[in-house]
Amino acid sequence: MDVLLYIGSALILIWGIAHIVPTKSVVKGFGGISEDNIRIITMEWVAEGLALCFIGLLVLMVTVFGDSQSQVAAIVYWVSAGMLVIMAVWTMLTGARTPVTPIKICPVVKATAAVMLVLGSLL
User: Fold this and answer.
1) How far is residue 37's CA from residue 119's CA, in Å, rounded to a whole number?
2) How much is the pTM?
3) Over its length of 123 residues, how does the chain's per-residue pLDDT go in tens digits?
4) Which domain holds residue 69?
């Protein structure tokens, strides 16, 4: 069911953009840290956002321009869902243990998108 694929890809793409936008304020939230640590946190924060955007765009492009019911598309959807689950678990074990609400809901968003991709590939 392509609508689930579109919703899942849009959800994770928007979440990736929303991850990148507040980078400056996120880094400031760490207080007085070294310039190297500022660069590393910025790099990692943006890298996760870009990874999420890439997954969302990959799924969207395969669905729009390919045959969403093909074996290759299914592989793209399942591998993307797998990566989202890995990222959700990692976030749950690390960032979600902080009091920051967007980071606490991040595993839910990633897992929801993953479920949509799997269901969209099966229905």
Assistant:
1) 40
2) 0.93
3) 899 999 999 999 999 999 999 999 999 989 999 999 999 999 999 999 999 999 999 999 999 999 999 999 999 999 999 999 999 999 999 987 888 888 899 999 999 999 999 999 998
4) 2-122
